[in-house]
Design brief:
The complex is a heterotrimer, with one copy of chain A (242 residues) and two copies of chain B (199 residues).
Chain A: H1 18-27, H2 38-54, H3 61-78, H4 89-114, E1 133-141, H5 144-158, H6 173-186, E2 191-192, H7 202-221, E3 225-229, E4 236-240
Antiparallel strand pairs in A: 2-4, 3-4
Helix pairs in contact in A: 1-4, 2-3, 3-4, 6-7
Chain B: H1 10-21, E1 26-27, H2 28-35, H3 40-51, E2 56-61, E3 64-69, H4 74-77, H5 89-101, E4 104-105, H6 106-113, H7 119-127, E5 131-136, E6 144-148, H8 150-156, H9 167-172
Antiparallel strand pairs in B: 1-3, 2-3, 4-6, 5-6
Helix pairs in contact in B: 1-2, 1-3, 5-7
The chains are: A mainly alpha (242), B alpha+beta (199).
Chain lengths: 242, 199, 199
């Protein structure tokens, strides 16, 4: 009913919805809400809806839904009891009466609230109080560790760096040139570059390979050796230039 | 207790000055932050007694204290002041429902009023500083609930929500029980206790 | 005249409320405009006596009257609140550089840090009471130098700056491990004076 967002609520003579109208009708019975006659109330409401229809007033849908529900309630109250029916018509009537009582209670509570001595209307605070001031003072905290760690950080970041390369076995290019030149003189046929390498540790041999390769290129450039390779990464052969 | 013929003690003077200067109602903790050590509560009690019946009164609103003019002098003071903007009937009822039922969902408010709340009604109450969102209810849809603010108590001159007129009677009468959201829905199956029993 | 043990009369209550709620000091005529008939002057005299020695006092300024807090309590209306705040990384580094290199100019600090320092950083250190201006350096531009204060030593529990660990100590403590070299600018290319010299 009222929960249907599509419901068009139309104020009719200032009523805010069917419950409001019902409450107004109930109060016109001029009795305590707890003693109203629900049947009489239903008649009053249906009468109102009829007269609205006669006046060709377009009633909002929720008024009509309420009218339908009240007509159902009326018939349930008048017809012989169906013991199976849940809730019973009496209970439905009681619930309606309770809802009216609740709405009425809240309406009266709202009126009493508004009639209280209200601040700024009936009672007043000072218009321009001096006000209380809170002066915030920052207390800065830092620990000695933070300080020296910060200095360490800066020092590490900005000290001149000396890069020291660990000493390792290296065959220099000069050594390789000398070695390959000597060996090429003693070899007549093609020989793989591996055979020119000295024995030793893996690192030593790697360095020797690199250096010997460069030496081979240098010697080829000088026209002292010829190089041959079948395919990329295939063994590299060299022999003395004819 | 009429203490006014005694000399006020230092704490009482200090609390008096701080509350007088404050722009907002103050909690005991806020007062203590200015006054320092001392029995603030006792000082407030002493001041309340001292000012009782005077043109200025010391009042408690929730957990905050303030001076304000006595209510019976409203007619003297109202003269050159704007009338507080009048709340609509829908606004008034909605505020009452929230105050007496809080925390309460929008659907529950609508169920009591039997009509939808128009968009602006809750906005107006929140803008006035009387109503605030008060968390979600852990039911399907997790609807937002609403409750009143400390400013509500201040504005309407209530010590606490317990001072809402008639709230105990209404509660005893079952009129503040959880609302049957689906009145008219026969499946609601809610057994309503007879509210006349103890009324 | 001590009237405080009597019931205040209506005029006195009214004047009290009007003065309390007023935005500014009021003349007797202005008070009468609110209060209406009655002996305003006598009411003011009664109120002045009633409030004498209290936290609030009724005072006359020229021909206007107002309530104000007692002068001796003014200090309560202002409250200093201390907020603990942790020094930022930039602040800590700047302080460390000043401590190790003082007196040192801002440009030198920036050169050592390899990063510019914002104006606020030195302000914070001076507000904290750890750093002070320490004269100008007699070079072109006469830049201001900064040094630490006795408060700095107290805060960090140092007898003298010589107690600051030197570079070797830092290295031994693992504080020179270049964990955040990636964040620094390796090209800063700065030769840092060896701070262990005078440590």
């Amino acid at each position: 009913m009222a929960d249907d967002p599509a419901t068009l609520t139309l104020d009719i003579d200032g009523w805010e919805g069917p419950l409001d109208l019902l409450l107004a009708l109930a109060r016109s019975q001029k009795v305590d809400l707890r003693q109203i006659s629900i049947l009489e109330l239903v008649e009053q409401y249906l009468g109102f809806v009829d007269s609205a229809a006669a006046l060709k007033l377009e009633l909002a849908a929720d008024y009509l839904v309420m009218a339908a529900w009240l007509a159902y309630l009326k018939s349930a109250l008048l017809l012989p009891r169906d013991p199976e029916q849940e809730p019973s018509p009496e209970e439905m009537a009681l619930r309606l009466q309770l809802r009216l009582e609740r709405l009425n209670t809240m309406r009266e509570a709202g009126a009493r609230l508004m009639a209280r001595d209200r601040l700024g209307r009936d009672v007043f605070r000072r218009d321009a109080p001096a006000g209380l001031r809170t002066v915030r003072k920052a207390v800065w905290g830092a620990e000695i560790y933070d300080l020296i760690a910060a200095y360490g950080r800066i020092s590490a970041r900005t000290r001149p760096m000396m890069h020291i390369v660990a000493d390792r076995e290296v065959m220099t290019l000069d050594a390789a040139l000398e070695r390959v030149s000597a060996m090429i003189g003693a070899t007549i046929d093609w020989a793989a570059i591996d055979t020119f390498l000295p024995s030793g540790s893996a690192r030593w041999r790697t360095s020797a390979l690199a250096s010997s390769f460069l030496a081979a290129l240098e010697l080829a450039k000088q026209g002292r050796v010829e190089l041959r390779q079948q395919a990329p990464f295939a063994p590299l052969y060299l022999r003395a230039a004819p | 207790m009429n203490r006014s013929d005694e000399e006020p003690d230092d704490v009482e003077r200090a609390v008096e000055a701080v509350l007088f200067a404050a722009a907002e109602p103050l909690t005991i903790d806020a007062i203590r932050a200015h006054v320092g050590e001392g029995d603030i509560r006792a000082a407030l009690g002493g001041l309340a007694a001292r000012y009782a019946g005077r043109g200025i009164e010391l009042v408690r609103r929730g957990d905050r204290w303030q001076f304000q003019t006595a209510g019976d002098l409203a007619h003297l003071l109202r003269r050159d002041r704007e009338e507080a903007r009048k709340l609509s009937r829908a606004g008034t009822e909605t505020l009452a429902i929230i105050a007496y039922h809080e925390p309460v969902t929008r659907a529950e408010i609508e169920a009591i009023r039997g009509v939808q709340i128009s968009k602006g009604t809750l906005d107006v109450l929140m803008e006035a500083g009387w109503v605030r969102p008060a968390g979600r209810r852990e039911v399907p849809g997790r609807p937002l609930t609403y409750a009143t603010t400390p400013g509500f108590l201040v504005h309407f001159g209530l010590d606490s929500r317990r001072d809402l007129p008639g709230i105990d009677d209404l509660r005893a009468a079952g009129l503040l029980d959880p609302v049957d959201l689906a009145m008219g829905d026969d499946d609601a199956g809610l057994v309503v206790e007879n509210p006349t029993e103890d009324a």
